[in-house]
Design brief:
Elements: H1 12-20, H2 25-30, H3 35-41, H4 57-67, H5 77-92, E1 98-102, E2 105-111, H6 112-115, H7 128-140, E3 144-151, H8 158-178, E4 186-190, H9 203-209, E5 211-218
Parallel strand pairs: 3-4
Antiparallel strand pairs: 1-2, 2-5, 3-5
Amino acid sequence: MKRVAIGLGTSVMFAASLLAGCQNLQQTATSPDYAKTRRDAGYGAAAGAVIGLLAGRDKLQSALLGAAAGGLAGGAIGNYQDRQEKKLRQQMAGTGVDVSRQGNDLKLEMPGGITFATNSADLQAGFYPVLDKLGTTLQEYGQTVIQVTGYTDSTGSQSYNEQLSERRAQSVAAYLESHGVTSQRLVVVGAGPSSPVASNATPEGRQRNRRVELTIVPVQKNS
């Protein structure tokens, strides 16, 4: 499995056009010469999705271009995501999964304590009903790409944490795929201890940092 280490941002249509034009995405994602392009396309840490250097172009290309076969008209995206957000908030209420929104991107934060046992990438059976509901909604709102990102705390080696976070993200993605979400829409990222949401100096902070996040990005028609 190839790890994808670049965010989708808020302009999937723009990214897809870069791919279609065979432009070097690693250069686009990292070179100072492309700083304006990254800003215009939604690349950057502020979008909450960029993890590091590009490591899985084939998987990213498949997700972007596969989902872009349909796509939404620009003016319809906001309403589409409004309806999806409302349904997700209703479904996730009381489950421990936090739903937030940045622009037209939706983010679901799944705490590690309710999804996985310590040092394990096997989903806890008690979390299956939550993912069942999520899978149904993702099928209903199919004009999106979903980035599944695993995170760990800083305990242990960098390589171990990256591998564990990737396996956990893959477990969530595989479960969703087995319940009808097409693989072309799923991008799996193992981020290890990067982008902590709390201090790793305390047990409570480390627990918060162990999580899986889903970023749901609408695909715009390339008109």
